[in-house]
């Protein structure tokens, strides 16, 4: 079994299934605070790519708002000009205009919703692609420290909340702001004293909106954080269901899920209650303002300072004054929830990607001369996993790395591929320091076969071709034959076109390893790294794997990490690693003759058998 990466905190949570880091390790980090203004600016960066559609939508919002505002004015005009005078033909004509304005307002609302939905989905599409691309560019250390469910939550839940704010909230907010401004202008034109009375409620509205919104934003951010944690638990538990059942930990898993789920329920309830509290409060204030306007209007009408039509229009406009205020308050709270998701997405986008130095050069075809000079490395500062390691492999040599679990064997593989960069020393290939070459070029020269290789939910052909995407079907089959995988592939229901289950779970461990070896054969690497490639398989399958690996290693510099010492008898050099240091080196027989650590390790596996 490969050694665990050392990224766990000093006191990790007691429950966890995901290898490579503690469960919910991301909760150890303090969330970076982002302000709403900066987040909105970054969202605009995605929206401005569709500026002409946005301009058309804004124009529609303006026209729709104007059409909507004409209704109360035409109603007052009907009362004063046509109903009081009994002019039925004129009233009928005016009613026709009123009907037309309402139809245009409804049609405009539908069209602007349609356009904004398209804008929102295209913007979210671009953000999703950028986020996924950034995830592909991040170093492995990021994935060690963040639960997979937490990352998936950003790609799904958070982006979905952003889509909601862009699709509906943005246009509704603009529409209600325009309606509010339009109503204020119209009521001041109609009657200044009544307008002043109507606006008395606005300071109270803004005060309550700001007070409630400041609390809803923090509440929604906490809710999103707990949702990411819950997704992490779900992903880990489902992925490790076999382990859960093997150790009879179903009740413990349910208890862990229930704990976080109840925390999420309480946090979401608090945030939603605060959000929904806004509506009733705004309605109460609006009704209060409406009563004040009605009483004031009645007094003005008695004094002859206002007509019945003006008062009727004013009461209607007063209601429309409270409606946009109410909607703006509710939208503002909803926008706060969406901005919390946007902040999390941009937080991931701001993670530093894996990069090459500005002076990095390309790496051409290599011979495979590998040298490590005084290499030291630790996954965490102050804790070294490798200490002043020195080794040399000449082209075509097979180097075996053996030692107890956690000694640092897999770490050497991680450093050769530059999944992690060393703290001190140098790693050279053909005399060239790998720190000065492009990582992509380096990794194309290396082939990696792991103990538990990942297979995709695709056909067998596509899984092997992953090693070299431009390979022809015949080249794929030839690689499978060299890897001794061709026979079992032909026994599958559709042969090379058989679609594998997730992670290749419909194949045996040995069959998955053979496909991984075939993938490496097709990639044709110059240097090969085998990390416990024959572990967890029976003796017969191991023989097939060994034959396939011998084909693969022929003529290549190879590093073989193995616990089964029978698999490395033919190694040109065996390096024994203990506590991050090479304590013995030499051929298999030489180390046995020394009767040191390697001898004891070998004898513990083959006690009673002839050497």
Topology readout:
Layout (H helix, E strand, L loop, with lengths): L35 H12 L3 H33 L4 H50 L2 H6 L2 H43 L1 H7 L3 H38 L1 H6 L3 H53 L5 H42 L20 E8 L8 E8 L4 E5 L6 H8 L7 E6 L2 E2 L5 H6 L1 E4 L10 H6 L7 H10 L3 H5 L18 H15 L3 E5 L7 H15 L3 E5 L11 E6 L2 E6 L1 H7 L2 H9 L6
Assign the CATH class of the largest domain: Mainly Alpha
Oligomeric form? single chain
Quickly count the helices. 19
Radius of gyration: 35 Å
What's the name of the CATH homologous superfamily of the largest domain?
ABC transporter type 1, transmembrane domain
Task: Tell me what the CATH architecture of the largest domain is.
Answer: Up-down Bundle
Mean pLDDT: 78
The H-and-E topology, N to C, reads as HHHHHHHHHHEEEHEEHEHHHHEHEEEHH
Q: Separation of termini?
A: 25 Å
Helical content band = 55-70%
The main sheet comes to:
6 strands, mixed
SS-derived structural category:
alpha/beta
The low-pLDDT segments are 1-33
**What strand line-up does the widest sheet have?**
6-7-8-3-9-10
Q: If you consult CATH, what is the topology of the largest domain?
A: ABC transporter transmembrane region fold
Q: Report strand %.
A: 5-15%
Question: Any idea what the shape is?
Answer: elongated
Q: Domains counted in the coordinates: how many?
A: 2
Q: What's the total count of β strands?
A: 10
Explain how this protein is built:
- The protein has 611 residues and is of the alpha/beta class.
- The protein folds into 2 domains: 35-349, ABC transporter transmembrane region fold; 380-581 and 588-605, Rossmann fold (3-Layer(aba) Sandwich).
- Helix content is 61%, strand content 9%.
- The chain is built from 19 helices and 10 strands.
- It has helices spanning 36-47, 51-83, 88-137, 140-145, 148-190, 192-198, 202-239, 241-246, 250-302, 308-349, 409-416, 439-444, 460-465, 473-482, 486-490, 509-523, 539-553, 588-594, 597-605; strands at residues 370-377, 386-393, 398-402, 424-429, 432-433, 446-449, 527-531, 557-561, 573-578, 581-586.
- The strands form 2 sheets. A 6-stranded mixed beta sheet has the order 6-7-8-3-9-10, with helices on both faces. A 4-stranded antiparallel beta sheet has the order 2-1-4-5, covered by helices on one side.
- Helix 5 (148-190) runs antiparallel to helix 6.
- It is elongated and about 120 Å long.
């Amino acid at each position: 079994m490969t050694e665990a990466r050392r990224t766990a905190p000093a006191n990790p949570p007691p429950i966890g299934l995901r290898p490579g880091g503690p469960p919910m390790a991301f909760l150890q980090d303090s969330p970076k605070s982002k302000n709403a203004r900066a987040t909105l600016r970054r969202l605009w960066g995605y929206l401005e790519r569709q500026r002409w559609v946005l301009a058309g939508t804004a124009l529609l919002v303006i026209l729709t708002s104007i059409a909507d505002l004409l209704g109360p004015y035409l109603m007052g005009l009907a009362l004063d000009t046509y109903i009081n005078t009994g002019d039925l033909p004129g009233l009928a004509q005016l009613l026709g205009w009123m009907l037309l304005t309402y139809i245009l307002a409804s049609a405009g609302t539908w069209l602007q919703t349609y356009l904004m939905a398209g804008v929102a989905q295209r913007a979210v599409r671009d953000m999703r692609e950028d986020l996924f691309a950034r995830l592909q560019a991040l170093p492995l250390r990021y994935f060690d420290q963040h639960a997979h469910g937490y990352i998936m939550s950003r790609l799904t839940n958070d982006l979905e909340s952003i889509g909601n704010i862009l699709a509906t909230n943005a246009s509704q907010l603009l529409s209600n702001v325009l309606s509010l401004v339009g109503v204020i202008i119209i009521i001041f034109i109609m009657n200044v004293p009544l307008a002043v009375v109507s606006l008395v409620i606005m300071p109270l509205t803004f005060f309550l909106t700001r007070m409630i919104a400041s609390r809803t934003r923090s509440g929604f951010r906490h809710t999103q954080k707990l949702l990411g944690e819950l997704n992490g638990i779900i992903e880990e538990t489902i992925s490790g269901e076999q382990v859960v059942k093997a150790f009879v930990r179903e009740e413990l898993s349910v208890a862990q899920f229930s704990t976080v789920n109840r925390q999420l329920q309480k946090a979401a309830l608090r945030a939603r209650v605060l959000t929904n509290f806004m509506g009733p409060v705004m309605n109460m204030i609006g009704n209060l303002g409406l009563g004040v306007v009605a009483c004031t209007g009645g007094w003005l009408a008695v004094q002859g300072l206002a007509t019945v039509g003006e008062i009727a229009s004013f009461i209607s406009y007063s209601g429309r004054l409270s409606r946009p205020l109410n909607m703006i308050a509710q939208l503002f709270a909803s926008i706060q929830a969406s901005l919390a998701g946007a902040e999390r997405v941009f937080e991931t986008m701001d993670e530093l990607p894996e990069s090459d130095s500005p002076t990095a050069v390309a790496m051409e075809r290599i011979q495979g001369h590998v040298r490590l000079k005084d290499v030291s490395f630790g996954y965490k500062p102050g804790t070294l996993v490798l200490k002043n390691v020195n080794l040399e492999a000449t082209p075509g040599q097979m180097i075996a790395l053996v030692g107890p679990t956690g000694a640092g064997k897999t770490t050497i593989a991680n450093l050769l591929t530059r999944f992690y960069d060393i703290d001190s020393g140098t790693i050279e290939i053909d005399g060239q320091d790998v720190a000065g070459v492009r990582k992509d070029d380096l990794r194309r020269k290396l082939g990696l076969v792991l103990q538990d290789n990942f297979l995709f939910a695709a056909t067998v052909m596509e899984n092997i071709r992953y090693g070299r995407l431009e390979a022809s079907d015949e080249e794929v089959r030839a690689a499978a034959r060299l890897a001794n995988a061709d026979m079992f592939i032909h026994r599958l229901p559709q042969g090379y076109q058989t679609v594998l289950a997730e992670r290749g779970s419909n194949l045996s461990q040995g069959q998955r390893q053979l496909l991984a070896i075939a993938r490496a054969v097709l990639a044709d690497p110059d240097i090969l790294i085998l990390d416990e490639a024959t572990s967890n398989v029976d003796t017969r399958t191991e023989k097939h794997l060994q034959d396939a690996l011998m084909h693969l290693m022929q003529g290549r510099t190879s590093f073989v990490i193995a616990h089964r010492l029978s698999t490395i008898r033919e190694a040109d050099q065996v390096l024994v690693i203990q506590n991050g240091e090479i304590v013995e080196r030499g051929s298999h027989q030489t180390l046995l003759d020394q009767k040191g650590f390697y001898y004891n390790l070998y004898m513990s596996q083959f006690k009673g058998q002839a050497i």
